[in-house]
Specification:
- The complex is a heterodimer of chains A (320) and B (375).
- Chain A has a domain at 33-46 and 80-91 and 171-221 and 231-312: Rossmann fold (3-Layer(aba) Sandwich).
- In chain A, 29% of the residues lie in helices and 24% in strands.
- Chain A is built from ten helices and twelve strands.
- In chain A, strands 6-7-8-3-9-10-12-11 form an eight-stranded mixed beta sheet, with helices on both faces.
- The longest helix of chain A is centred in the middle third of the chain and has 18 residues, at 185-202.
- Chain B has two domains: 4-267, P-loop containing nucleotide triphosphate hydrolases (Rossmann fold), CATH 3.40.50; 274-304 and 314-374, no CATH class.
- Chain B contains 16 helices and twelve strands.
- Classes of the chains: A alpha/beta (320), B alpha/beta (375).
- Chains A and B meet through helix 7, helix 8, helix 9 and helix 10 of A and helix 10, helix 11 and helix 13 of B.
């Protein structure tokens, strides 16, 4: 049984101007000790997907269909209290985008780091503090740092603390939403090294969500590419990066500027992603797709296994 | 590439740190944030010159200083104004040297005003830099009105249309009456670029122009820059933290660290054969879409974090983080002793490739020659 099984998940936002289908029929699985990277551009629904897994979708959004099973338990059917007791922090923790800027400026960071321990375990404050000191060293910081206030720390240090918090209760799954986006490249590389090490030592499963394909390549064994609320390609990272099948993935990879190797002409994808209140019929990428042909604007392409473990939702590979 | 259009020498921008009442009474010395601390470079016509560095290295402040958007502490900036601006300057009693250059840091505010026509800026955030209540035509017409260019409304409208064509927002009629919120991020950034080039400037300072955009449209903006450089003979200053986009637009790259340029050279030379250990670390840190990378840890030869620009380390300002220095000291190498004693000057180590690091003989020689000359 996979650790996490998401089936046909649908999360919609009921805004005054219409229903935004941010996540619209997403399915994937995650095994124990596996890293999955979910890549997509702004507005493709990747953060909404992450929030859905913890059932933290902000209103007016809500999960309207599908199931999310963690260790066989369907969390879409749990009560809020049960969810809080059994799932959040213990089973699944999350590194939110920009979390390092969410520390309360008037409290010592240590008091904030130990909060999940006080709320989710019966540890005393002293025990929790000792545990936090241990975790802080795991992420490469001196234990004294817990006595400091947020303004005394650099961005990299704060991000390390956020990571320490996420692994504090040793959850099975850590969801990291843009964990390095606001950081300088040198710090980004250090944080990625840290995540690689933690993942190897702790055998955690990680879901890494980012717009940056290079960051995914640094960490993820499997990659899913999202476009307009759907996963369009999914498979082992080696296959997705070296032999991309979906025209969107192919274009996206050619748009990434590379530092090394020959300087090939960068391409860009004309147009912009569709309005998710009213997505195009058929394949959602077809208005921007160079390879569109007859069925694309009428019927939605099914997800097919084009090669072993490598799935793609595109009419080029589907048999009708 | 053509003649020099800008020659900056020893630019310094220091921001005073506020003292409290008690500190003022007890006479504590005034402290400064030395955001830009002695930067020299030149830019030629039809050249894209890049400033690369991490946040807080002074790259944006350097760009702003050229438009005098921050108070200048010291240094000079010889600039070659366009013909129209040169005439305007002479009317205002500015003498232009026989080479056609003028020191824009010596002008007063009134004299500097026409120079703003010639040096334009493109900002990072196209969502914040365009007035949401203006249509595209108003956004582009505004600078023409401010600088009294174009006699009639229809003449200005024609210039607006031409600028939109230049940045490939075509058909013009489809875009000219839109409001910013009706445009995508890439289109907005193109409007911001059109607003900069409508003045027919000599130099455009672009501060992180693609970092807010999605990857799939970054290339579109980079292409516009390359096109404008070729067609209009513009010079660009491209400020970025991202060496990999720099590679696609820049002719030369200057790497900044803590208010100083530590390396300047042709873009490919700097990326492929960096001469300064900081550049090496920066290059090593940049990830790439290659899934084989996940199997190995990145070896980044740098330690600690950027110190405060109020307390700049003595000697080479990079030495407390430099692993090269640390290793050399451990091995007892003589040259590394200079790192804490003297500030390494920016010296041409290879042809057209400058570095400020004592590992290079040429840099050490420059310091010893200076010391000998001084005594």
């Amino acid at each position: 049984m996979p650790l996490l099984e998401v089936t046909d998940l649908r999360t919609y936002y009921y805004t005054l101007r219409g229903v935004v289908r941010a996540v619209d029929g997403v399915s994937f699985t995650l095994d124990r000790g596996e890293t999955l990277g979910i890549a997509g551009e702004s507005g493709c629904g990747k953060s909404t997907l992450a929030w859905s897994i913890l059932r933290l979708v902000p209103p007016p959004g809500r999960i309207v269909g599908g199931s999310i099973k963690i260790d066989g338990m369907d969390i879409t059917k749990m009560s809020e209290a049960e969810l809080r007791r059994k799932v959040r922090w213990r089973k699944v923790s999350m590194i939110f985008q920009g979390a390092m800027n969410a520390f309360n400026p008037v409290l010592k960071v240590g008091d904030q780091v130990i909060e999940p321990l006080l709320l989710h375990t019966d540890m005393t404050r002293e025990e929790a503090w000792a545990k936090a000191e241990e975790m802080v060293q795991h992420v490469g910081l001196p234990p004294e740092i817990l006595e400091r206030y947020p303004h005394e720390l650099s961005g990299g240090q704060k991000q390390r603390l956020v990571i320490a918090m996420a692994i504090l209760l040793e959850p099975d799954i850590v969801i990291a939403d843009e964990p390095t986006t606001a950081l300088d490249v040198v710090i980004q590389a250090q944080i990625l090294n840290l995540m690689k090490r933690l993942y190897r030592e702790k055998k955690m499963s990680i879901i890494l969500i980012t717009h940056d394909l290079s960051v995914i390549a640094e960490l993820a064994e499997k990659t899913a590419i999202m476009y307009a609320g759907k996963i369009v390609e999914y498979g082992p990272s080696d296959a997705v990066f070296e032999n991309p099948l979906h025209p969107y993935t192919q274009a996206l990879l050619k748009a990434v500027p590379r530092l090394r190797g020959p300087k090939e002409r960068l391409i860009y994808i004309p147009g912009s992603p569709p309005d998710l209140r009213n997505p195009p019929r058929g394949c959602r990428f077809y208005p921007r797709c160079e390879k569109r042909f007859e069925p694309c604007d009428r019927e939605e392409p099914p997800m097919v296994e084009a090669e072993k473990g490598h799935f793609v939702a595109c009419w080029l590979y589907a048999r009708r | 590439m053509g003649e020099k259009v800008l020659d900056v020498r020893d630019l310094r921008v220091w921001f005073p740190v506020r003292r409290g009442l008690i500190e003022t009474i007890t006479g504590r010395a005034r402290l400064y944030v030395r955001a830009v601390d002695g930067v020299s470079f030149d830019i030629r016509r039809r050249e894209t010159f890049c400033f690369v560095g991490e946040s807080g290295c002074g790259k944006t402040t350097t760009g702003k200083a050229l438009l005098r958007l921050v108070p200048i502490t010291g240094g000079s900036a010889l600039f070659r104004p366009s013909k129209e601006v040169a005439e305007e300057l002479e009317k205002r009693g500015v003498t232009i040297d026989e080479d056609g250059m003028v020191d824009i840091f010596k002008l007063n505010e009134k004299q500097f005003h026409p120079v703003r026509r010639d040096i334009q800026m493109v900002y990072q955030d196209p969502f914040g830099s365009l007035n949401p209540r203006f249509r595209v035509r108003d956004i582009l017409e505004e600078p023409l009105i401010v600088h009294k260019i174009g006699e009639t409304k229809s003449e200005r409208l024609e210039m607006v249309s031409r600028a939109l064509e230049m940045v490939k927002l075509t058909p013009v009629s489809e875009f000219i009456d839109r409001y910013p919120h009706q445009l995508s991020g890439g289109q907005r950034q193109r409007v911001a670029i059109a607003r900069a080039i409508i003045m027919n400037p000599v130099l455009v300072v672009a501060d992180e122009p693609v970092s807010m955009l999605d990857v799939s449209i970054r290339a579109e903006i980079l292409e516009v820059f390359n096109l404008l450089k070729e067609r209009l003979g513009l010079s660009f200053i491209y400020i970025t933290h991202d060496l990999s986009t720099a590679r696609y637009v820049c002719d030369r790259i200057a790497v900044m660290y803590l208010g100083k340029i530590v390396e300047i050279g042709e873009a490919d030379d700097v990326i492929q054969e960096p001469l300064h250990p900081y550049t090496e670390a920066l290059v090593a840190a940049i990830p790439e879409p290659d899934p084989r990378n996940r199997l190995k840890f990145r070896d980044i030869k740098i330690k600690g974090e950027v110190p405060s620009p109020v307390n700049i380390p003595p000697g080479c300002r990079f030495h407390p983080r430099c692993i090269l220095y640390e290793e050399a000291i451990k091995r007892g190498e003589e040259w590394a002793k200079l790192c804490t004693k003297a500030e390494p000057p920016l010296v041409e180590v290879k042809k057209g490739h400058y570095a400020a690091c004592f590992r290079h003989e040429a840099v050490r020689a420059a310091v010893t020659a200076k010391a000998a000359g001084g005594s």
